[in-house]
Amino acid sequence: MKKEIITILILLFPLFSFAQFPTSFEITYPNIQGITLPSLPEVYEKPEVYINYIYRISIVFGVILALFSFVLGAFLYLTSAGNIGKQIEARERIWGAIAGLVLLLSSVFILRTIRPEFGRLRLASLRYPYTEIEEGVWLCRNEIRQTYQFLNHDFTLTFEMYIQSRLAIKQNWDILSREEQRAIHNLYYNVHQNCHLITFSQEIPEDFRRAQHVYIIGNYGAVFHALPNFKGPIRIITINQRLLNLDLFNPDLQDDLPNFSYFTLSDSEIPNFSVTLFKDFRLNYLDRLFNQLNPMYSSVLPNYSENIEEYAENGTTTFYTFRNFHEDLSADYQSSTSVCPSFRDPGTQSCFRTFGFRIQDFATTVQRTYTARSIDGGSQTLSFRVGVLNTTTTQVQLDPCYSLQIVLPQGDKFRGKSWWIVIARGIIPDPAPAPDPNLPFQIWALGHPFLWAEVFDKSDRDFEDNYVSYFCEDKARHKRYPCIGSVHIIPGRIIKEVER
User: Cβ(373)–Cβ(380) under 8 Å?
Assistant: First the structure.
């Protein structure tokens, strides 16, 4: 029985020995003879640090076990009076513990005093594996920054700089310094710990409804809704200026470069309960267009008009006063000069309004030059082609407006795909009500449906059972009805589920 109790105490002793540390071993490593390890996920790039740590902690464990074996042997010797066999076994345990302790301490003395070079490890430094932050829209609680030191200079790597340089980072990963690789590695974990990735239209998690920092990786845009189920006032986030071919990685330049993929939301624009994510086709068009116009590619690529053909075809968006695109009405309502009744004033209005767009209508090219600091304190001139992208805002003013038809460009490559994204709003009353100065605008807008919006990427034959039917109200009849006063039309498609 005594033997079993002693065995249990021996097994439990390591647990008691670590009780002195304030945090768990897996989270914060204990300090052993002046050496400790960083908490995960931060790592050292030198493997000898870990080996040295294991070596030192092994010595501590060896001394503890030797002393414990000595005390156990003495205890067995004192409690085995009259039993010669037990006393001999206890003496052997005592001398074995002494011999082991002497041998252990002698090895430490030899390594540290007589031949200290035996204890010096010289291993090749670890190279960090390349890890890429996923494409999509990232909601972050704070602005993401990572500080590090390189060539005796302090640098701050921002998430925005990573986004602008990520192609160069991927192509030149093996020649980046360990400090740069480590900063990018830590930035990766910082993003995944403090941000939420949106890869499809969804309800925003509660922890990120008040996230004020938005980063876009890839050709994406987002419509933030102030209510669940993609309803309420909105905030559109899309890259309206595009920086292309930033083929270097130098965080020292970032203070002189504008933000293209980073946005902030003010307190009056939050919280956001849902988000509509969409692919922004304007940026695909710019990628191809700029690659063709850039002189460094002109000798190896054909004429850009051939390459951007799929982005250059026409599409139309038509808003109708009545349901079913007027298909079940007489010819009197089919002509471009036809007039239909309006609920406003009352009066008459056009029976439908059609808008045609091409992808080029949303882009122009501008050559811009930036002068930024270089590492040695001088200046560095960088020239970029920048796409100035303007989201088209169109006044529709159909009151009522019961149906919407989106006609895609002709061709098999467009069949079954959305092409134009329509963000529709209601008609602002005349006179327009003044916002309450005591309330944030978004809170005040919740009570005024004409400021709400809905996002479409396909035709709808009847708005009466739709969210649009809340945009206007006939006070005389105490009835709401659909109307559309203005729209944003963007070439793209809504992402409704995960695409990988």
Answer: yes
Quote the pTM value. Answer: 0.71
H or E segment to which residue 53 belongs: helix 47-78
Q: What share of the chain is helix, strand, coil (3-state, %, to 5)?
A: 35, 30, 35
Average pLDDT over residues 185-189: 91
As annotated, the residues of the chain forming the CATH 2.60.20.10 domain(s) are 130-309+358-390
Q: Which two structure tokens, joined as six digits, stand for 19? A: 């009780």
Question: Cis omega (within 30 of 0) on the bond before 431?
Answer: yes
pLDDT at 202 exceeding the cut of 90: yes
Q: Is the pLDDT of residue 9 over 60?
A: no
d(CA 374, CA 147): 18
Helices (H), 265-384: 281-293, 295-298, 304-307
State how far the Cα of 124 lies from the Cα of 397, in Å rounded to an integer.
Answer: 70
Which superfamily does 130-309+358-390 belong to? Crystallins (2.60.20.10)
Distances (CA, A) of 22 to 71, 74, 212, 233: 28, 33, 35, 48
Separation in Å, CA 265 to CA 46, 211, 276, 325: 41, 8, 16, 38
- What is the pLDDT at residue 450? 85
* 455, 230 contact by CB (below 8 A): yes
Asked if 198 and 410 touch (Cβ cutoff 8 Å), the reply is: no
Q: How far apart are CA 456 and CA 461, in angstroms?
A: 12
Q: Which amino acid is at 200?
A: F
Distance CA 282, CA 392 (A): 12
* Residue among 258, 90, 64 at smallest CA distance from 160: 258
Q: Which amino acid is at 301?
A: L
Span 392-435, pLDDT tens digits: 788 888 989 999 998 877 766 666 677 888 999 988 887 888 88
**Starting at the edge strand that comes first in sequence, how are the strands of the sheet with 363-373 ordered?**
241-243, 379-389, 363-373
Note the pLDDT tens digit of each residue in 40-85: 554 555 555 666 666 677 777 777 887 777 777 777 777 777 777 7
What are the tokens at 93?
Answer: 């345990």
